[in-house]
Design goal:
14 helices; 24 strands; elongated
Length: 502
């Protein structure tokens, strides 16, 4: 009994010592004398989280005085050595977001660091996300500053219509943040910017409860989520951010297909990126896909997937049309009972299979530009309405495949929430890739597709009207400008730049 009482006294003493030590540490953290040495203008959290000395990416700290990255905080570590050599004492862990004073080693808990932690790791509650699309208030013309502490009611909250001032006094709108062009990655940046504007996809990657789960799924989901949160953050120190970490992960995941320094087709990247996001969201192991798992729905398919009915017509060969199945010859022009036109068939072709094909985007074909132009037509650019191009999917036109000799008929049976349309401007011949300059006229709001699809079941009850969210275009180089000097006109798609209007 006495031993039990003695053990209890020892435990109480230990708890008392721990509380006193904790209180002492808190008092020390509140009195850190080096907070005024922090230089926020030198901080840049967009680079890869890698030590500048050992090039390791584990347990990396950022010096809040000079902005450089160092590993560890123990004796003989690069961060510890840097604090002694450069007399820099305030460091923050880039993974746990905890700040420490080196070489003393105590943790700094101070409200003065909240804006730095928010810029490093933006967080969004359901209330914050709901406020992003709130209509502008009467005070929406005012500017909020990032120099003050971001709380749940100030910098971290607010609608996307209210500009935010950076440290250098410039303003930006959350969600409309520029992405650095690392090296010819503008074709990838425009696709990312377009995805940032998709509300449901944005909300999914912004929500705090999804952050940990996405990070555990794959590095691609983790890096894409981080970039989405930075673009919609109201506490950035600069008016732009860098997609470098995401592009490096894209290079690895695509096995070099989309690498930094190589301009790619935005459509190819969009198709690959959406498919990869879906695969990483529904599969526990993305390297081992299964048909049943891939059939499951994800936020990607909920936003972009629709259905199109494809009917294939195969050409009737002349041999089959002159001989019956029993081998008996019949006269040319004699009616063939086997090839009588059924309903929906066309002359010279027999109806093949009809199947529902899911799609994430639709490709539209431009009419070919006039081959020979008169002097008066040289300066005239041909134009076409978007609805004329969409008639490809109204179920009345047939499209010939030169490679297989088949004809196909397309009709949309289910519209997605967000419709991605791709206008084919580039065609490749034996010598080079040329660009079709035809102008496509389209409405900004209320594009009605009711006459271009045959919706059935629940899809028929939904809306068939669309408003423009973003527009990606290719801007060619002016052949008379200095940029065009020395440029070979072999691939028009790789010349110029890609731009986006949001």
């Amino acid at each position: 009994m006495q031993e039990d009482e003695m053990d209890l006294d020892v435990e109480l003493e230990q708890e008392g010592e721990e509380r006193r030590d904790k209180k002492k540490r808190e008092e020390e953290t509140k009195q850190c004398p080096y907070l005024d040495t922090i230089n926020r203008s030198l901080l840049d959290f967009d680079f890869e989280k890698q030590c500048s000395v050992t090039f390791a990416n584990l347990n990396v700290y950022a010096c809040l005085v000079c902005g450089k990255y160092f590993q560890g905080r123990g004796p003989k570590s690069p961060a510890f050595t840097h604090s002694l050599q450069s007399d820099h004492h305030v460091f923050i862990n880039l993974h746990t977001f905890r700040a420490f004073c080196l070489p003393d080693g105590y943790e700094i808990v101070d409200a003065a660091l909240d804006d730095i932690k928010y810029a490093l790791n933006p967080s969004f509650s359901p209330r914050d996300i709901a406020l992003l699309d709130a209509p502008p208030s009467s005070s929406s013309s005012s500017f909020s500053s990032t120099s003050s502490k971001p709380t749940s009611t100030s910098s971290s909250s607010g609608n996307s219509y209210t500009p935010v001032r950076t440290l250098d006094g410039k303003s930006y709108l959350p969600g409309v943040v520029g992405l650095n062009n690392v090296k010819q990655n503008d074709s990838l940046n425009v696709v990312l910017q377009a995805l940032f504007a998709v509300k449901e996809l944005r909300d999914f990657f912004l929500l705090d409860k999804n952050v940990v789960a996405l990070a555990q799924r794959s590095s691609l989901l983790k890096n894409f989520g981080e970039l989405v949160r930075k673009v919609w953050c109201r506490g950035l120190f600069k008016g732009q951010t860098s997609p470098q970490e995401l592009l490096q992960e894209v290079d690895l995941a695509s096995k070099g297909q989309f690498r930094i320094g190589q301009r790619n087709d935005p459509l190819e990247f969009l198709a690959w990126f959406l498919s990869t996001l879906h695969r990483h969201l529904v599969l526990k192991d993305p390297s081992r896909p299964s048909a049943n798992a891939l059939a499951r729905s994800s936020i990607v398919h909920q936003c972009f997937q629709g259905l199109v009915r494809v009917t294939t017509f195969k050409k009737i060969s002349r041999i089959n049309s002159l001989y019956d199945p029993d081998g008996a010859e019949r006269k040319e022009g004699e009616e063939d009972d086997l090839h009588k036109k059924e309903e929906g068939e066309i002359e010279g072709y027999h109806k093949g299979e009809t199947k529902e094909v899911p799609f994430l985007y639709l490709s539209l074909d431009l009419p070919p530009p006039p081959l020979f132009k008169s002097e008066s037509e040289k300066n005239i650019i041909p134009q076409v309405a978007l609805k004329v191009l969409l008639s490809k999917f109204d179920g009345t036109q047939l499209h010939h495949n030169n490679a297989t000799g088949e004809k196909k008929r397309y009709v949309i049976t289910r519209l997605p929430k967000y419709l991605v349309l791709h206008v084919r401007r580039f065609t490749k011949n034996f010598y080079f890739v040329e660009k079709n300059p035809t102008i496509v006229n389209f409405p900004i709001k209320n594009l009605d597709l009711k006459g271009h699809c045959r919706l059935e079941g629940e899809a028929a009850e939904g809306s068939s009207r669309y408003d423009l969210v973003s527009n990606i275009c290719h801007q060619s180089i002016d052949q008379d400008s200095s940029e065009a000097q020395g440029v070979l006109e072999e691939d028009a798609q790789k010349e110029g730049t890609y731009r986006i209007d949001v």
